[in-house]
Amino acid sequence: MPLSKSRYIVSLDLGTSGLKAALVSEGGEIVASAYRPVETVLVGPDGAEQDAEAIWTATKDAIKQVVQEAARPAEEIIAVAVASQFSSIVPVDRSGKPVMNLIVWMDSRGGAFSREIYGRHPEAFPTWVDIHGAMPLPSGNDSLSHMLWVKEARPDVYERTHKFLEPMDYLTARLSGEITANACTVFMMVLTDNRQLDAVHYDEKLIEMSGIDRDKLPDLVPVLSPVGTVLPAIAAEIGLSAETKVLSGLNDTQAVSVGTGTFKAGHGGVNIGTTSQVLAHLPSKASDLEHAIVASPSAIDGRYVVIAENGIGAKALDHFLTNVLFASDALADHTTEDMFGHVDDLVREAPPGSGSVLFLPWLTGSNAPSSNENARGGFLNLSLSTTRAHMVRSIMEGVAYNLRWLLPAVEQFSGGEFEQVYLSGGGALSDEWSQILADVMGRSLLQLDDPRHCIVRTTAFLGFERLGMLEMADFPRISQVRRTYEPQPERSTIYDGLFEQFLAAFDRNRPIFDSLNG
Question: Which residue segment(s) compose the domain that 450 sits in?
Answer without folding.
Answer: 255-311+419-490
